[in-house]
Amino acid sequence: MTTNPHDLNTYLEVAREAALHAGVILKEHFGKVCPSMIDEKAKNDYVTDVDKKSEEIIKGHIKSHFNNHGILAEESLEEKNTSAFLWIIDPLDGTLNYIHGLPNFAISIALEIEGNLAVGLIYDPLRENTYSAMKGHGSFKNNKRIQVSHSKTLNTSLIATGFPYRIKDIIDPYLKVFKDFFMCATGIRRGGSACLDLAYTAEDIFGGFFECALSPWDMAAGALLVEEAGGMVTDFKGNDQYLKTGNIIAGSKGVHHEMLEIIQKTFKK
Predict the structure, then answer these.
(1) CATH number, domain at 159?
(2) Which domain holds residue 89?
(3) pLDDT tens digits, one per residue of 16-66
(4) What does the pLDDT read at residue 43?
(5) pTM for this structure?
(6) In 3-state terms, what secondary structure has residue 123?
(7) How many domains are contained in the chain?
(8) What is the pLDDT, as a whole number, of residue 182?
(9) Segments in 30-136 forming alpha helices (H)
(10) Is 139 helix (H, G, I), strand (E, B) or coil?
(11) Gene3D superfamilies, alphabetically (predicted)?
């Protein structure tokens, strides 16, 4: 993939504008969600009217600039076409947190060009933090360069994860891996927003992150952030198919290597 950096800047700026507009809605309704605004898509998987409105704003802003681009967003059908450009959008990552008034949620927007992640942006509207990355140009928080942890081992690292609520039949192997990490790492945290966990991994809060059964919109922007911050991102086999498998390991290179070894002892297939 060869793309003019000026073009990437344009795409990133459109993503930033879309996230800021949608973030206004998230802030306005935070702490005000009532039962009539909530639907259960699947067991323990919720969507609110705020998710939908946020997605409408983001998609509308992107389409106003790039009407021929494809869009894959959490709360609507994929809009496929022959374009080499695909926007991957999570309008509210951390919906359950949002419903319960827990201030840990964000907007995630990524752009694939010819199947490769090229632009990623995560916006935390309550803290007004914007994480951004362009392929080959590094990762930034509020326009300041960020890097993954310098730690090379789990025993000096704080690790983040998420529970596999979508596929509960893998809870036993997941808990086995959780225990293995618990015995090695400084600590483990579960924040409830995968994209923020990845952003925090990119900025050296977490040494690493792993989770099972995620969707592309949960990971796409955050994965690029970690890679551009000098980290590694793979699936549980050590390959780059995490957007397809839904299983992801991200972190500094040394920590990622240890995490991959531990996970592969349990998740062998």
Answers:
(1) 3.40.190.80
(2) 5-145
(3) 999 999 999 999 999 999 888 888 776 666 788 999 999 999 999 999 999
(4) 65
(5) 0.94
(6) strand
(7) 2
(8) 95
(9) 49-65, 95-99
(10) strand
(11) 3.40.190.80, Fructose-1,6-Bisphosphatase, subunit A, domain 1
How many CA atoms, within 13 angstroms, populate the side-chain half-sphere of residue 76?
Answer: 21
Asked if residue 120 and residue 11 are part of one domain, the reply reads yes
DSSP run (H or E) holding 152: none
Q: How many helices (H) and strands (E) does the chain have?
A: 8, 14
Query: Which helix (H) or strand (E) is 118 found in, with range?
Result: strand 116-124
If one counts every other C-beta atom within 10 angstroms of the C-beta of residue 165, the result is 14
Residue corresponding to tokens 């990133």: 12
**How far, in whole angstroms, is CA 131 from its chain's centroid?**
11
User: Of 162, 159, 160, 32, which is closest to residue 93 (Cα–Cα)?
Assistant: 162
* Residue partners of 127: CB distance under 8 A and separation at least 6: none
Using the structure block, give the residue that is written with the tokens 């702490």.
31
70-73 vs 45-48, strand pairing mode: unpaired
Model pLDDT for residues 94-136, shown as the tens digit of each residue: 999 999 999 999 999 999 999 999 999 999 999 999 999 999 9
Last residue of one domain, picked from the residues 145, 171, 200: 145
Cα radius of gyration (the chain): 18
Q: Which residues pair with 79 in a beta bridge?
A: 71
CA distance 181 to 6: 42
Q: Is the pLDDT assigned to residue 6 strictly greater than 80?
A: no
User: Do residues 21 and 138 both lie within one domain?
Assistant: yes
Shortest CA distance to 30 belongs to which of 103, 96, 123? 103
Of 98, 66, 70, the closest CA to residue 216 belongs to 70
Same domain, 160 and 130: no
Judge if 170 and 256 occupy the same domain: yes
pLDDT of residue 2: 52
Question: Of the candidates 266, 235, 230, which has an alpha carbon nearest to the alpha carbon of residue 248?
Answer: 235
Tokens of 183: 């015995």
Do 13 and 133 fall into the same domain?
yes
Q: Which of 145, 162, 197 is the last residue of a domain?
A: 145
